[in-house]
Each structure stands twice: as structure tokens, then as C-alpha cells.
Amino acid sequence: MAWYHRFSNVLRPRRLSRDLDRELSFHVSELVDELVARGMTDRDAFAEARRRFGNFGMQKERTRDVDTMAWLDSLGADVRYALRAMRRSPGFAAVAVLSLALGIGANTAIFGLIDAVMLRALPVRNPGELLRVTAEDQWGVVSNPVWEQVRDRQDVFSGALAYGNARFNLNAAGEAKFATAAWVSGDYFSTLGVRAHAGRMLAKSDDYRGCAPVAVLSYAFWRAHYGGDPSVIGKTIALDGHPFLIAGVSASGFTGVDVGQSKDLFAPLCATAVNGGSGMLESPSSVWLFMIARPKPGVSLDQVRARLSTLAPAVFEATVPRNRGTESRSDYLRQTLRATPAANGISQLRSDYGRALVLLMVVVALVLLIACANVANLLLTRATVREREIAIRLAIGAGRGRLIRQLLTESLLLSALGAVAGALLAQWGSRLLVAMLSDTRSAVFLDLSPNVRLFAFTALVAVATGMMFGLVPAWRATRAQPHTAMKGNSRGITQGHSSFSLGRALIIFQVAVSLVLVVGAGLMLGTFRRLTTVDAGFQRQGVLLVDANIRNGEYKGPRRAEVFREMLARVRALPGVKAAVSNVTPVSGSAWTDDVVADGFTPKTREDGVAFFNQVGDGYFETMGTRLLAGRDFGPRDALTAPAVAIVNESMARRFFATTNAVGKTFRVLQGQKTSAPIEIVGIVEDAKYKSLRDPAPPTAYLAVSQDSTPSAYLTFDVRAGGSTAAIAPAVRNAMLAASPTVSLTFASFAEQVDESVARERLLATLSTFFGGLALLLATIGLYGVMSYSVARRRNEIGIRMALGAARTRVVRMVLGEVAMLVGIGVALGLAFALASSRLLAVFLFGLAPNDPVTIAGAITISVLVAAVAGYLPARRASRVDPMLALREE
Fold first, then answer.
1. N or C terminus: which one in the chain shows less Cβ crowding within 10 Å?
2. How far is CA 223 from CA 17, 446, 872, in A?
3. In the 8-state DSSP scheme, what is residue 273?
4. How many Å apart are CA 747 and CA 547, to the nearest integer?
5. How far does Cα 68 stand from its chain's mean position?
6. What is the DSSP string of 408-426?
7. What does the pLDDT look like over 227-273, one tens digit per residue?
């Protein structure tokens, strides 16, 4: 019989059984007819035929084995039996499946994020061939002159590309509406092997100095903004007020090579000049491009690295920035070029959250272990109920291996159901996690579609989980002696000391692991609380940030400053409003640093001579809530023609002048081989955080925006109002548009910006608290179940004790004493594990030591209190046992 017929017979067991009955009955009938023809009576012939034919049921089973895949048929029978067993114990099945669903779902959700951020290859041609090319000391990005030198000199790549991230305003005036974009080199799409869905892709012919502004839309942007209309090809789209010709639409699924970001459109590098960025192409000091290349066939990674190392001296010699000092120039020339695999793309999200995701993967793995211990305890308890059934099956000839297989099938079915439910939870959980990673400035985009790797991980976890919690209970359950277990009043082997000792060991393990997770949750929660309450040197609440861009108004030189002054005056005229301007907003991720020269100060290292800078207007410190400690604020006297002045913070005064009051002193800014004119310090302000809440306040100098001889077209307005920032936004918008109808505005809450700067800490605190609480809940349920089982097992003993005069309080103390022993051992082991492992969290902590005694004491207290509640309920039930009923059962 062909294999597919045998397989189909497995899927139709009832029909096969009927067919076999008919076939066997036909053979018996033939033999009966033959015997009757020889002279036997019908009755005798039928009896003789059945005797000659043999055991009807055995013959049927042998025939079934031939006509089916016996192993698959047997497995199907085991699954059907397991389903019937679960229907008989729906409460047990629900608790087990829910516990496993939470554990497996959490693992699948976190692994799904790890897969999307760290493992998934780019949707391009042969992504495994791609290499990322970086300069040693430029944070992974290079200048356009360096890119052009590499492009023109290399001979080991079949294709190379460069790109820089951008953001374009789609609105001509008023509140800005941004599209994420990339400036790309001409070979960008051809190197990646990305084809056009409509129109054409950019090519080398589009990327030359003075090129025409063209753009390629992403498929998702084209569908969302143009409804998939093919007629938009050849039309223009306004980007920052400049028309770009739409050349084509990229293939569906491609949104760039930055994992975590979705690019809406792509424009050639040369078109940066159209948007006023010609300096970005010419300046060797402007590092902003990422490089990716594809080696020629047969060229290995080692060969690429060797060739880049050879090319590097000439590349950097040809691109030395003019304003570099002697030491800085030497450092620049010592750089080399490196190549690393880039199949998974480039990702800032990966850099920021890679270690956090690995940590969360460890946490959810521990939660799953606790869930497995819970289900194992449930199975050990359930084995007591089924021991008579198992004993009967052993007595009538079932092999121990066959019973273990049956019990493991039940365990694997539970884990499979848990995996299915967990996968559904994971889809929801993954989207929730991505939402937690996003902020108001940029949404995180990740491809969370299921793939083979995710399915394989979930299946592997399900199988490993089923074996983990099912093997030992199955092994112990089949050790029962049939003659003992079948006695009416027998307690059975599963009630013996060894089985119950295993259950208690599992409880100790659960308490220990849950304590580790609760300690970790406490540390993460404490870190987040300290970051959000740290004295940052400014008041984050009640400040509206308005980024103003007047480039579209074609204002030049001094006229820009006049327009901004008029805007500021109109905003300040609003009732109850304080306002100022600045170039850098605290905790925005932006930074401006320069080397400082001060009389009497000799830096020990190059970093010692670096200070952070900002350019602000009068009233800035009052608006931001930063205290002025000495001297004065900027004012009308600080005009463009007046001597340069600055206000510095305490850290800068201490480092460069060895005093907290440096008013009247001067410093200079290093500008290549020269220094600036002297800058007089007219005020001292308190230290305020600059780039991050984690970092100490750096030495910071605030320059007067009114003394900027080349005012930018961009400026941030810091607006403080008595009410909510959302309520004042419309009035601020109208006031600024009245001063310049073409201004482009972007609104943000300063408080939200600061909160979003600790998004990673919020994620870790939220998830570690959730998983720590889940682990504690599972451990509590496990403790309650084991103690309830213990009380039921010792019901007769307790009844005898009470009949002999034991008080109810003594019974409660006896049960709670057992709980205290289990919890005490678990807490001791958990404390040792927590102290050993908490050091791994040190990189994520702020203001807390890994062995913080308050956090550890709090975790122990919570664990003990919860365990006491879980133990008291069975103890109370034990104290209410009726001695007469217990003795009557005995």
C-alpha cells in the first residue's frame, strides 16, 4: 500500500475501522461457507471459522498496523486520549495552559523584537554580501569628501553607496509635517539590488554637482499620501519648500537600510545644495554619511579589510579639514578604514536597546522556568489522582516506556496549547513594545511579520518546555507498584516522601528565582525613579518648545535676527507667557562642543580642554528655571558690535578658573590654528544637564544669540505658560505666523522630550516590574498548590493530632513553619543569586549600587509577605479539619 494511502487512513480512523470490520467479516464468511459446503451446520461452521481465524481483535490490529503509519496512528491515539484527560480536568488544563502561555508568549515577544532588531536580514538582493565601511574615530559616519575618495579609489567593491539621514517638511508654512528621508548616492539602489515598483530608481546620472532635485518615494509613503496613484510619477513634491521631481516608487517592503526607521523618500546627495546644504558636501569636518559596499565576486572580507587599510592614508591625507590644529591633524591622519558585515543593516535602535533586549530575554526565560516548575508541581499532584489508572494499565501489560510516552504526549500537548496562546499574546505584546520604543519625534518601525526563525523558536521553546516539566513527573508516576497502588486505601508512590520532596524543591527554586527577578525589578524601577526626579538644573514642566524655520522666507543675514526678535516680542506679549530663544535644547541629544583656552589653565588631556556650548537669548534661564548665581543675564547691551560675552555654569568655572565665581574673567575658543577674540564671563548659573539625564552636568558656556554674526534660519523658542503647553500652542502659532507668514513651526513639550530621553529605562522598569510580579505570582500559586496538597495528604494525621488535644493555632503554626522553611531556603538561595547576578545590571543603573540594601530588603519583604499569605490559606484550612470525619475516613 502506498504511503499516502497509509497516511490518509490515519486521518479517517472510523472509516478504516468499518472497512477492516467488513474485510475481516468477509474472510470469516468465506470460511463459514466452505465449512458448510463440507457438511457442517451453520453454527458449528461459524464457531470453527472463528477458531481457525484466531483472535478477531488482534487480527484487526495487525491489519490496521499494515494499512496505516503505526507510529502516527499511535501518536494520534495518544493525543486524543490527552484531550479527553484535559476535558476531565478543565481547571488543571486552564491553569497549566495559562501559565505556559504567559511564559512562552513573553519569550516569543522578546525574541520577536530581538529578531527584528538584531537578526533579520535586509529585504535586498543577497544581503549577506553587504559590508559597512567606517572610519575609526568618526562614530561610524564619514564626510562626503571621504566618501568620494573611497568611491573613486577602491577596486574591491562591485558597488558602493553612501547615505545620510534627513527630515523634510511637507508643509510650505505653519505647523510642520515631516517626512523621514535619506540623501543617497547614485549607486544606492543598484548596489542594494532594489528595483522600482513604478517609474525608475535613482542612478549615477542623478548624482553630480549641480544636479536637478529628484526623489524616489517609498511604496508605503506612495500608498499613504497618493493612494497608489501611478500618475504622480513625473510630478513634483515640495520638500522644505523646494520642488523635487518624483522619479519613481521603490519596491514594496523596502524602507531603507536603517533598522527601526522607515524612510518615506530618497533624494540624491547632490540635491542637498538645493536645500541650502552645499557645505555638507564640501566640508571634511561635516561627518554625516554612512557607507555600505558589496565586494566583487571572490573577494573575501579579509581582502577587503587589507585593501581599505592600504587606501586609508591617501584618503585621509586628501581630506584633512583646514581648521585642524597640529595635534588634531595628526589624530585625523592616523585613522584607518574598517569593514564589518552589514546584512542586518544599520541601526541606532540596535545600539541603544541591544543589551536591554538581551537582558529582557534572560528575564523572560527565568519566568518560563518558574512556569515550568508550576506545571511540574501540578502534574505531580495530578499523578496522585491517576495512580490507580496507571497501576491498572501496568497490571494488564502496558510497558513503562509506553506510559511515559503517553504522559509526555499530554505534557507536550499542554505546552503546544500554551505556545499557540502565547504566540497570540506575543503578537499583541510585540506591537505594545514597539509603541513603548517610539516617541513623539519619531516612530519606531520594525518588521514584526512572523518568519521561519520565529516559528522555529516558538516550537523549540514549546517542545523544550513540555519535556522540562513533563519528563520527571511521568517517570515518577510510572514507578508505582500495581499491587500497592490498587489497594483501596493505599496512598500510592506519588504520595511518598521522594515525590513530595521534589515538589518542595521546585517551590524553593521558584521562590529563589522570583526573588532574583523582584530584586532586578526593584533596581530598574529605582533607576527610572531617580532619573525622572533628579535635579537637572531646569524645570521641565510647563515649557513649550517651538522650532522655527524661516528659510522659506528667503531672509538673509541680519534680517533673520530681526524676524526672530519680532516673533519673540509677539510671543512675550501673550498674557501669562515667558519666552526666550536658544540653539540647543537640554536633553535633546544634540551637542555643541569646542576646545577652550583660558589663562592659567593647562588641560591634562585633550578632553579636559573641551566645553559644551549653547547660544541663548535674554530671559532663557528664567524661562527654563535655571538659577543665576552671580553676575547678570544677557541684555540689550550685548549687541552684535559689543565685546563678546558669555554666561558659564559652575562646572566650567571650577574646571577652567578654579573658582565658583569667574565673573569678569575671559576665555577663548580654539579655531584651528587660531583662537577667537576674548569672551568675557558676565554671569554664573547653576549646573544643568546638557545631553542626557544620566551624565553629570558638563562644563557649559552660554553665548549671546544677539552677538551671532551669521544667524541661522533655525531657532528654538522656549515658551513657559501658566497652563498646559497644548493650550498655549495655538496662540503662540498665530503670534509667530503674524511676524512671518512663511515660517515653519514644530511644537513639542519639553517635559515629554525629557521623559522620552529615558525611554530605555522606562521600558526596562515597566517590563522588569511586570515580569517580576508575574514570577512572584506564579511562585505564590505554586506554593499555595503544594501546601494545599500537603494539607490534603496529611488530613488524617492532622485529625488525629486535633483529636488528641492539639489546638487549632498549633496546627496553623505547624503548616506555617513548613512554609517558613521552604521560603527561608528559597530566599537564602535567591539572595545569593541576586547578589551574584545584579552586577550584570550595573550598566543600566543610575544612582543605585547593584547590591543596594534597601532594594534587596524590600524585595525580600515583599516575597515573604506574599508567601505568608499563600501559606496561611492552607494552614487555616488545616486548622478547621473535623477530627471525627478524618478518623472515620481512616
1. N
2. 57, 18, 61
3. G
4. 7
5. 47
6. HHHHHHHHHHHHHHHHHHH
7. 999 999 999 999 988 899 999 999 999 999 999 999 999 999 999 88
What does 599-642 look like in DSSP terms, one character per residue?
Answer: TT---SSTGGGEEEEEEE-TTHHHHHTPPEEEE----TT--TTS
Q: How far apart are the first and last CA of the chain?
A: 59
List Cα–Cα distances, 220 to 200, 254, 264, in angstroms.
16, 9, 7
Q: How many whole angstroms separate alpha carbon 347 and alpha carbon 327?
A: 32
| pTM listed for this prediction | 0.84
Using CA atoms, how far residue 519 sits from 102, 313, 328, 413, 848, in Å, is 21, 52, 47, 34, 12
Q: For residues 518 and 511, what is the distance between their CA atoms, to the nearest angstrom?
A: 10
Question: Phi/psi of residue 639, each to 5°?
Answer: -85, 175
Residues 6+ apart with CB under 8 A from 143: 283, 284, 285, 286, 287, 288, 289, 319
Extract the C-alpha cell encoding 743: 515660517
Q: Residue 42 is placed in which grid cell?
A: 451453520
Q: Is 847 left (phi over 0), alpha (psi -120 to 50) or beta?
A: left
C-alpha distance from residue 340 to each of 129, 149, 742, 821 (Å): 11, 19, 45, 54
Torsion of Cα atoms, 223 then 225 then 228 then 229, to 10°: -170
> Quick check: 539 and 531 in contact, CB under 8 A?
no
Average pLDDT over residues 393-398: 70
| Cα(269)–Cα(289) distance, integer angstroms | 10
Integer Cα distance of 633 and 704 in angstroms: 10
Round to whole Å and give the CA distance between 218 and 648.
Answer: 46
**Given the C-alpha cell 513527573, which residue does it identify?**
473
Instruction: Write out the E strands in 212-346.
Output: 214-217, 236-239, 242-250, 265-268, 287-295, 337-341
Whole-angstrom distance, CA of residue 791 vs CA of residue 449: 49
* C-alpha dist (Å) from residue 600 to 86, 665, 671, 840: 83, 11, 19, 43
- Residue 885 clears pLDDT 70, i.e. is over it: no
The tally of CA atoms less than 13 A away on the side-chain side of residue 806 is: 20
The answer to whether residues 550 and 743 touch, using CB atoms and an 8 Å cutoff, is yes
User: So what's the pLDDT on residue 503?
Assistant: 78
pLDDT at 491: 43
Can you give 483-504 as a three-state secondary structure string?
HHHCCCCCCCHHHCHHHHHHHH
Residue type, 839: R
pLDDT of 273 reads 83
132: DSSP letter: E
Residue 201: other Cβ atoms inside 10 A: 22
> Which cell numbers hold the place of 160?
558602493
Taken as a whole, the chain contains a residue count of 890
| Alpha helices (runs of H) in 115-236, residue ranges in sequence order | 144-153, 188-192, 219-226
Would you tell me the crossing angle of helices 497-533 and 452-477 to the nearest 10 degrees?
Answer: 140
| Integer Cα distance of 435 and 762 in angstroms | 12
Query: 577-582 and 287-295: which strand pairing?
Result: unpaired
Residue 208: what residue type? Y
Angstrom distance (rounded) from CA 243 to CA 234: 12
According to DSSP, the β-strands at 679-685 and 628-631 are: antiparallel
